[in-house]
Amino acid sequence: MSNLIRDPTEIKTWDEEVAVLVVGLGAAGAATALEASRTGAETLVLERAGGGGGTSAMSGGVLYLGGGTPLQQACGFDDSEEDMFKYLMASCGESPDEAKMRLYCEGSVGHYDWLVEQGVPFKQTYYHGCSGEPPSDDGLVWSGSERVHPFCEIAKPAPRGHVPQVENQAGPLLMKQLCAAVDASAARVASNHRCIALVQEPDGHVIGAIAESFGETRAIRATGGVVVTTGGFVLNDRMLEQHRPAALRCKFRVAADGDDGSGIQLGIAAGAATQHMDAVSISLPITQPWGLKRGVMVNAEGQRFIAEDSYYGRLGEWALLHHGGKAWLIVDDAIFEKPEYMPEVAAVGETVAELERELGLPQGGLASTMALYNQHAEAGQDPVFHKNTEYIQPLHSPPFGAFGCAVDDALYAVFTLGGLDTDVDGRVLDPAGDPIAGLYGAGRSTSGLSVGSYSSGLSLGDGTFFGRRAGRTAAKG
Ligand SMILES: Cc1cc2nc3c(=O)[nH]c(=O)nc-3n(C[C@H](O)[C@H](O)[C@H](O)COP(=O)(O)OP(=O)(O)OC[C@H]3O[C@@H](n4cnc5c(N)ncnc54)[C@H](O)[C@@H]3O)c2cc1C
To answer: Burial of 99 by CB count in 10 Å (0-12 exposed, 13-18 middle, 19+ buried)?
Structure first.
């Protein structure tokens, strides 16, 4: 038996007994604790840091919701569960979990209402800029590739990024409100308590956990269950090496210290299966200001590989995982603007051929790409990657420049999307697909809705949505 698992016979006395023991107080843990305690179940949250928040409090705070939320309606957008479902099934990577996706879309309006009930404010206004976290306190924003080919043909586009009302980064406000709601609930929080092991019966039933606090260990019995909401594993080099080594090349692995995969390892030690451990969100925000979407993105062969107006979560994934992390954004003098998140120009040329030489690209590769692009752009078209007409403009005006979008130069922000395998009610599953009694999970310690081509808001969205379900299930025992 690994030291992550303790046999009940080792426990002389339990220091505490609760119904539901939640491990980790990020967005998923807060939602779990709120719903578990709401049912009347005695709920304790263990948090290894000095207080709640986790990576959720460092995030943009965008929640992906739709299907006609009051905020969407207030901003004049017509959306349906079906369009949201079709977009997400098409855009969330290979084989996302259909049952979870269906429930999420059906329950999205109700989840928005629940967030508002917890005190999360959403200004009833729409941000008119392009996709991403708004630089304003507007509540509704495009946060994915909904308007981009092929998704705009698959589902009617609607903005679904719901952002708590604060200028710029909204994660801190989201967590301030959710943690305040937990404090006001019957759930208790034990900060500076790191869960170091699960207590498991020989038949597999998880009946409690061991926590370490200031050098002392405490055994906590959980009659209903233990819910793992400890976040992802982007700070665990060894796990990244095993599952997605390319992520180690990203400059920006921002996460709370807890994102070291400890909860996933506890679950695995208890016999859990994992899903999509190689799935990562990689943001490459090259196109701010938005006019830079009129540029042409090429790989090391000088070839285009994606519609440049794709959401930055898709751009980063394509550039790093499918094109070796080597890419440039080609602009001409007419569309040149200083980018917000990219380094200075990597090369300049009076002609495309000169630029190509400067960049060391295969002779003729970039020139033929630009010739083809410009030929169709003259007619306002992009039959190769179907960029939105609003961003199509022939690039003829010298000098030509290339912004370096390679992983070694540009901002690639990564976090993990895979984790413990769970059912729609948060039960952690073993490799045969059977629930491990007493063990539940939610948030980034579990496999999420998006298993690729990330749209912003899905992580906080599914973490809180399925956290609530896990809390209710664990409370029933
Ligand atoms: C810069 C940035 C911006 C982002 N913006 C967005 C966004 O706008 N929208 C979105 O949906 N996603 C966003 N994300 C991703 C999102 O923030 C995370 O995926 C999400 O917060 C994970 O939530 P969680 O509750 O699962 O984990 P966390 O919020 O990380 O919480 C896990 C908690 O568990 C604790 N913990 C860990 N191990 C233990 C242990 N063994 N014992 C006790 N406690 C433990 C941790 O200390 C932590 O408090 C962003 C990420 C980054 C890096």
So the answer is: exposed
107 C-alpha to ligand 1 centroid (Å): 22
Residue 168: the pLDDT is 83
Has residue 339 got a pLDDT over 90?
A: no
Question: Which residues form the pocket of ligand 1, taking CB atoms under 6 Å from any ligand atom?
Answer: 23-29, 46-49, 53-56, 58-62, 194-195, 229-231, 254-256, 258-259, 262-263, 413, 415, 443-444, 456-461, 463
CA-proximal residue: ligand 1, atom 1 (nearest): 59
Query: What is the sign, positive or negative, of the torsion defined by CA atoms of 408, 410, 415, 417?
Result: negative
Residues 411/341, Cβ–Cβ less than 8 Å: yes
- pLDDT of res. 315: 93
Q: Give the domains, in start order, of the chain with CATH numbers.
A: 5-58+173-281+413-476 (3.50.50.60), 63-168 (no CATH), 285-404 (3.90.700.10)
Say what the pLDDT of residue 376 is: 98
- To the nearest 10 degrees (0 to 180), the angle between helices 458-476 and 98-106 is 90
pTM of the model: 0.96
